[in-house]
Write a structure and sequence with these properties.
The complex is a heterotrimer of chains A (556), B (200) and C (313).
Chain A (H helix, E strand, L loop, with lengths): L2 H4 L17 H29 L10 H36 L7 H20 L30 H29 L12 H33 L12 H35 L6 H15 L14 H13 L1 H15 L8 H24 L1 H7 L3 H31 L5 H19 L2 H7 L13 H31 L50 H13 L2
Helix pairs in contact in A: 2-3, 2-4, 2-16, 3-4, 3-5, 3-13, 4-5, 5-6, 6-7, 6-8, 7-8, 7-10, 7-11, 7-13, 8-10, 11-13, 11-14, 13-14, 13-15, 14-16
Chain B lengths: L10 H42 L14 H25 L3 H28 L7 H31 L11 H26 L3
Helix pairs in contact in B: 1-4, 1-5, 2-3, 2-5, 3-4, 4-5
Chain C lengths: L11 H28 L8 H32 L17 H31 L6 E3 L18 E7 L2 E6 L4 E3 L2 E4 L4 E7 L4 E5 L4 E5 L3 E7 L5 E7 L11 E7 L1 H13 L3 E2 L3 H12 L14 E2 L12
Parallel strand pairs in C: 2-6, 5-11
Antiparallel strand pairs in C: 1-9, 2-3, 3-4, 6-9, 7-8, 7-10, 10-11, 12-13
The chains are: A mainly alpha (556), B mainly alpha (200), C alpha+beta (313).
Chain lengths: 556, 200, 313
């Protein structure tokens, strides 16, 4: 893997990042680095896709290649980038934010992580089998996903299902760990309503994983049986029902999008207070809204199936439940605005990413409400309107939130400060690139351009060219990020324990923290979080702790 | 680090060992809840396919023989009771009685698996006999896998019961195994109703 | 727990400025709603005005919300920026219960209003007939030839394949790979697939229905504008999914009648299927690519039609 070249040694032994460490902070970095490797792979696939879509004809790559590319782009981005990178942040932040020495099950943690490169390799390997990679979209709907022209057992689709199943197991093991840790290992004095919102949203997101993933696994097992054993769960000729698969698939995959965005809501909730120097507005409501989203998130899945042939009453019902999710989400958005209002705004790199991410998220939320209404959805479903919508949420909001988190907590976990200039450049290129890439997709969808097409009618060319330019800009935007990460980790200025003057248990640890974080000396929490402007300590003996940290930094 | 006053050790330090022991059971319970969803998925798939089918039973098949499976059910449900008995004796520190009932539970679980295999061997339809065959073998097979896992876990716990000082840190392994066994039992009851009792 | 901010009443000028800003945002929102119509194709069915009206409304409301949120953010970034070397904290405002209630209730009312509007539209579309009846396909039907041949004259059977669209007019004995419809006359489609999932999508009509193998789905609409439109496969169906398109011609009653009459007299010939041509080319040119499902042979139809004439949407 390329990480050897990308991340040379910090003062402590760098070798632990390549081994089977059980320290959540090491595992967290492992998750993040591996996921960014796959981000680059899937991003490269996206560049080829957008290259093909520069012109109407299917003239860059063969159609079978294109179908494999877009399928793997989606699959890798979801299962090998976004879920692992969020698990990486969970590993870094959850124990340190709650004052725990590590996760509840450290060895299970290691096992869950190491499954990621394994199923990653399976997916990469699928490009090299004779039948080619899976090419039925990241949804893998039967019957088309069951079509196996060569009839080989080890087909790309077979490897795909295996990889997704392994990913599910890895995620479930991770979820058990995160939930147990948050429920059982909080510092003394840290009741639920003194817990940082990031932990609330992590708890919410991981609960969704636990409830939803097994449904996907079940559906995938049946798909695998149809593919390899000749059963007919989804084959109409054998009495099966292709739409049944869709229900299993979406029962998980809709909550999956909340698994992706909830941690980002957590990140925003952590960062807006720091860079506005003000408490999070309505902390309790923000925390509780996370669980309202969990509940509603489990009863909206049919909105992905409106044109599928589901009954009218079902469409109306799921339209209403989908619209309702806008309410707790709105509560959070307004809370962040309320946090900024009359604050002392500092436009640092993390804050810029949060602000840009929030703007993109509100836009995506609006197109989401449009998609929720059945009549409009019937017109735009399976068109580029949907592709634009979800890329705004995932890239425009979630990835930007993840970048914000990385810049914000980089000093804590590497002991070095990232370069501000490169960070701001990264932000500008990302914000411009994402909007240029994904905004044109909306008129394309409204005009009737279907998604997943390797060629299109000439009238769609104009917006496609703009979108492709935006994609190439996004490709370029990664360069300052990678440069920043590498050079800052190697030779960035040393970070103190609290460079942002933030309030939280993780900021009462050295940068980077020792292996067991607070160890035996877990401070007792005596105030709610985000106490900016209130001049009250977060924990008992805070002054002594700060003094000890400052002294240690001075003598380094 | 240096000679700065160290804040007093907090209660969590004293709880350390106890905390860790109980985490395992918490984690296992959470895992079981998640596991139940996959069974729920298979149950609903079965129900939906069965409801929508024009011809549910494959040609040549009249229905499922229910007497032997009923005996298997009685054996499996009773094994939950013997397990409760075993745990009762463990609590009373009567280790040999505990081991006896534990072994009995294992034997009943093994009998269930044997009975399942015999039933499968005598069936006139296969995995590819339409959705009827597919769902039948998927449901009973996946459940059987869990029974086998349960028996193995019980075997492991039985072996460990001979290690001196095994229960000094608590009995999470026993509790988890027994929880798993009861879970497998409840799943079977639902399965039995769905497969054998539900008449078209 | 939550400390409300001290009650600040806005003075005269700021209040007027705020009012003007809100007015401006409303004006822009209304304008955007109007613009939204331009982003949509021409309206060629009776469903289109209903769908477009809902979309325009959503665009207007969405623009208002978006501009409102962005205005607040821009204001804070301009006016509430920290001074250059100011490391101190701001006022510790933790919340405001009344605001929380307001910004929970108003969005709730708003989304429920949109949902109610959408249900009305949905119900009206439902009256137009899409997707209400789903009959599982009976294998016995195959014995009598194309099952669609026993449909009433107003019905058109649509057969989706990898990768072509065939349209059969059973009452008139005409088949085609170009869909001809009579202006202002309701038509019921019977959608069937011979292989995998497909999507029957005509953007100009604003209607879409997945075609599910093993089912025959009835789907009704009324074309309301003369012209030539595109039908595109909208549910990924394999290698030549993107090429699986056909033209839809909406014509006057007389033109339609004469098209049917000529079609009935025409001999059967290969219909349109770009996939077939591309596949042949691919085999001979030996270009790279992964193995693919072989395209179904082009349907034998009376009227192949054209796929290369300019279309309105």
């Amino acid at each position: 893997m390329t990480s050897t070249a990308l991340f040379p040694q910090p003062p402590a032994s760098w070798r632990r990042y390549f081994g089977f460490s059980t320290d959540a902070k090491v595992i967290g970095i492992q998750y993040i680095v591996v996921s960014f490797f796959f981000f680059l792979v899937a991003g490269l696939l996206a560049m080829i896709i957008r290259g093909e879509l520069l012109t109407p004809a299917a003239d860059l790559v063969d159609r079978t290649v294109y179908n494999g590319l877009y399928t793997m782009h989606g699959t890798i981005m979801l299962f090998l980038f976004i879920f692992p990178v969020l698990n990486g942040l969970n590993n870094l932040l959850i124990p340190t934010m709650i004052g725990a020495p590590d996760m509840a099950f450290p060895r299970l943690n290691t096992a869950a992580f190491w499954m990621v490169p394994v199923f990653g390799l399976l997916l990469i390997a699928s490009f090299f089998v004779p039948s080619g990679p899976a090419s039925a979209g990241w949804w893998s709907y039967p019957p088309v996903s069951l079509q196996n022209p060569l009839g080989h057992l080890i087909s790309g689709e077979f490897l795909w299902v295996l990889a997704v199943a392994l990913s599910g197991v890895s995620s479930i093991l991770g979820a058990v760990n995160f939930v147990t840790t948050i429920l059982r290992m909080r510092a003394p004095g840290m009741g639920f309503f003194r817990m940082p919102v990031f932990c609330w949203t992590a708890l919410a997101a991981q609960s969704l994983q636990l409830i939803g993933l097994p449904a996907l696994t079940g559906g995938a097992v049946m798909l695998l049986m149809d593919l390899t054993l000749g059963t007919s769960f989804y084959r109409p000729e054998g009495g099966g029902d292709p739409v049944l698969y869709q229900h299993f698939f979406w029962f998980y995959s809709h909550p999956a999008v909340y698994v992706i965005i909830l941690p980002v809501f957590g990140i925003f909730s952590e960062l807006f207070p720091v860079y506005s120097r003000k408490p999070l507005f309505g902390y309790v409501y923000v925390a509780l809204a996370s669980f309202i989203i969990v509940g509603l998130g489990l009863i909206v899945w049919v909105h992905h199936m409106f044109p599928s042939g589901v009954a009218q009453w079902m469409r109306n019902l799921f339209m209403v439940t989908t619209m309702l999710i806008a309410v707790p989400t709105g509560v959070k958005v307004f809370a962040w605005l309320g946090t900024m209002w009359r604050g002392k705004i500092k436009l640092t790199t993390p804050m810029l990413f949060c602000i840009g991410g929030l703007i993109n998220f509100v836009f995506a939320g609006i197109t989401g409400v449009m998609l929720a209404t059945v009549p409009v959805d019937i017109h735009v479903s399976n068109t580029y309107f949907v592709v634009g919508h979800f890329h705004y949420v995932i890239y425009g909001a979630a990835v930007m939130g993840i970048f914000a988190a990385i810049y914000h907590w980089f000093p804590k976990f590497t002991g070095r400060m990232p370069y501000e200039g490169l960070g701001k450049l990264h932000f500008v290129l990302t914000f411009l690139g994402a909007n240029l890439n994904f905004l044109p997709m909306h008129p394309l969808g409204l005009m009737g351009m279907p998604r997943r097409v390797s060629s299109y009618d000439p009238e769609f060319a104009f917006w496609n060219v703009l979108a492709s330019l935006g994609a190439f800009l996004l490709g370029v935007s990664i360069i300052p990020f990678l440069l920043n990460m590498i050079s800052s980790w190697v030779r960035g200025p040393r970070a103190t324990h609290n460079p942002w003057n933030a309030i939280g248990l993780e900021w009462l640890l050295p940068s980077p923290p020792p292996e067991d974080n607070f160890g035996e000396h877990v401070p007792t929490v005596i105030s709610p979080p985000y106490g900016y402007g209130k001049n009250e300590p977060l924990v008992e003996h805070q002054a002594e702790i700060e003094r000890a940290l400052t002294l240690a930094e001075a003598t380094q | 680090m240096t000679s700065t006053p160290i804040p007093p050790a907090t209660p969590s330090a004293a709880h350390g060992a106890g905390h860790h022991a109980s985490h395992n059971l918490t984690g296992f319970i959470i895992f079981l809840c998640s596991e139940s969803v996959i069974f729920l998925a298979f149950f609903s798939g079965y129900a939906i396919l069965r409801q929508a089918a024009l011809n549910w039973l494959p040609p040549g098949v009249e229905g499922l023989e229910w007497r032997m499976p009923l005996i298997n059910t009685i054996v499996l449900v009773s094994s939950s009771l013997t397990m409760v008995a075993a745990e009762h004796f463990k609590e009373k520190e009567q280790l040999w009685l505990f081991r006896g009932f534990w072994l009995l539970t294992m034997a009943m679980g093994a009998y269930f698996l044997y009975g399942q295999a015999v039933e499968w061997g005598g069936l006139k339809f296969g995995l590819t006999s339409g959705t009827f065959g597919a769902t039948f073998y998927l449901l009973t097979g996946f459940h059987g896998l869990h029974v086998a896992t349960g028996v193995l876990l019980m075997g492991l716990m039985l072996v460990k019961s001979f290690i001196p000082g095994n229960y000094n840190g608590g009995e999470e392994g026993l509790k988890a195994t027994s929880l798993f066994w009861h879970f497998v039992d409840v799943i079977w009851i639902i399965l039995f109703v769905l497969l054998y009792v539900w008449r078209t | 727990m939550s400390s409300s901010s001290p009650n600040r009443r806005l003075g005269g000028i700021p209040l007027i400025a705020l009012g003007l800003w809100i007015g401006l945002v409303m004006a822009i929102s209304i304008w955007m709603a109007g613009q939204a119509q331009h982003w949509l194709p021409v309206q060629a069915s009776n469903a289109a005005p209903l769908v477009d009206g809902l979309f325009r409304f959503e665009t207007g409301v969405g623009t208002f919300v978006f501009l409102g949120v962005v205005s607040v953010m821009a204001w804070t970034m301009l006016v509430h920026r920290a001074e250059k070397y100011d490391e101190s904290d701001a006022e510790p405002i933790e919340g405001n219960t009344r605001l929380e209630v307001i910004w929970t209730v108003i969005p709730l009312v708003l989304v429920m209003a949109i949902a109610w509007y959408a249900i009305q539209v949905n119900t009206e579309l439902g009256v137009l007939g899409p997707m209400e009846h789903i009959h599982p396909r009976n294998a016995q039907e195959e014995l009598g030839g194309y099952p669609g041949d026993r449909l009433p004259p107003e019905q058109v059977e649509v057969i989706a394949r990898q990768w072509s669209w065939e349209f059969r007019y059973p009452g008139r004995n005409v088949s085609s790979t170009e869909l001809h419809l009579e202006l202002d006359r309701p038509v019921t489609f019977r959608l069937v697939s011979e292989d995998v999932l497909h999507g029957f999508y005509i953007p100009a009509f604003r209607l879409k229905q997945d075609v599910i193998p093993g089912r025959a789905i009835d789907f009704t609409l009324t074309p309301t504008r003369l012209g030539r439109y595109r039908l595109r496969d909208s549910q990924f169906s394999g290698t030549w999914f993107a090429a699986n398109q056909a033209d839809v011609v909406v014509e006057s009653a007389e033109d339609h009648a004469s098209w049917l009459k000529q079609g009935a007299a025409a001999p059967l010939q290969s219909g349109l299927s770009p996939a077939v041509g591309e596949y042949a080319e691919r085999q001979t040119a030996g270009r790279g690519g992964w193995p693919t499902v072989v395209p179904a042979p082009p349907p034998q139809v009376n009227v192949p039609g054209s796929s290369s004439l300019p279309h309105d949407a």
